Amino acid sequence: MEDRPLRVLVVDDTVVYRKIVSDILAEIPDVEVVGVAHNGKAAMAKIASLQPDLLTLDIEMPEMSGLDVLAGIRSDAQDVGAIMLSTLTQKGGEMTMRALELGAFDFIPKPETGGMEESKAQVRNAIVPMLKAFARRKAVRNILRGKSAGPGAAASKQAKDAAAVVRRQAVSGGKKSKSEIVGIGISTGGPNALASMLPSIPSDLNVPILIVQHMPPLFTQSLAKSLGVKCSIEVKQADDGEPLRPNTAYIAPGGRQMKVVAGSDGKTRIIRVTDDPPENSCRPSADYLFRSIAHHYVGRATGVIMTGMGADGTEGLKMMKKNGATVIAQNEPSCVVYGMPKEAIEANVVDVIAPLDKIAQEIASTVR
Q1: Catalytic residue among 13, 65, 86, 214, which?
Q2: pTM for the whole thing?
């Protein structure tokens, strides 16, 4: 990960989860558990003395909740990240959205069933790639802050490059016309990225936006609700069978797949929400959505790939590109995790690489 171990403080009010998380972290190379805390108040006291890079943080705790800890970290301007442990409930989803707004890096749903070993396996499978992604982001941020960039001109050039929109000569696709639909694939860092980007989408965009955000059930409903109050377009969790409407953003339900199909009249396009198998270990999957857009909107679509781990979306974007779509990718400095955009860029299917604050503008330019 880095030259020195990633220092982690484990915070949870239950002995079981303190042990589960601590045992998992102890097995991971380049990670050091520097301490544990049984509630948020104890965690805040230990942050100052132990100086961790990262907290694993339970949301619901007595005396001082995980949300209070995040607010305290923000107010003190402390450079420490957090991965939340969230309950799979509607309340848990709403609190997790708030945690992400307060700066949490990502979250892990607490296993609801199974014994100790099964729970450890679920948490391990989720947290290991997050830790690697967090360490990489920390290194990139250090470079952008100038810690490794050298003085003056080099740091200035990096800042300029981070803000620039790059237009590429991607592999040519079919004939293009103005887009009539926008598809977005996004994962780690997505809720905050969407909260930054979607409010800049104009209220008169006049096309639908379909979004795959990798999340478990219940959490996408909370995400849609959170985004809806920030945006001038409608934002909702997609329902099976509903027709696509302009100026509406549809978020795929967590734990299910979403695609576009033809309506009975052959002209209308409707949403199908299915229980088809995961793709790239993801359900919902961006590839699953993008393939359907490629089929039904030849030469009239925009694909957007944003912050996230893994490669979901790249194969679907290849199909969209072949059928004349315009493809936009988020740039590395503005990503929490530069996995999904990087894969699409390296596959040479991306037309525009843009920082987060320019993506809405780039989307609008493909529609008008």
Answers
A1: 214
A2: 0.88
Judge whether 187 counts as a catalytic residue.
Answer: yes
Q: Which of the residues 13, 106, 287, 312 is marked catalytic?
A: 312
pLDDT, one tens digit per residue, over 271-283 is 999 999 999 999 9
Can you say whether the dihedral through the CA atoms of 289, 295, 208, 352 is positive or negative? positive
The domains of the chain, with CATH numbers, are 6-144 (3.40.50.2300), 166-367 (3.40.50.180)
Q: Does residue 68 have an active-site annotation?
A: no
Q: Is residue 119 annotated as a catalytic residue, yes or no? A: no
Q: What is the mean pLDDT of residues 162-177?
A: 75
Which position among 65, 86, 187, 222 bears the catalytic label?
187
